[in-house]
Amino acid sequence: MKITEDDLASDDVETLLGEHLDDMAKHSPPESIHALDLSALRAPDVTFWVVRDNTGQLLGCGALKELDKTHGELKSMRTSSAHRRKGVASAILSHLIQEAASRSYTRLSLETGSGDAFDPAHALYERFGFRFCGPFAKYVEDPFSRFMTLEL
Question: Strand, helix or coil at 139?
Answer without folding.
Answer: coil
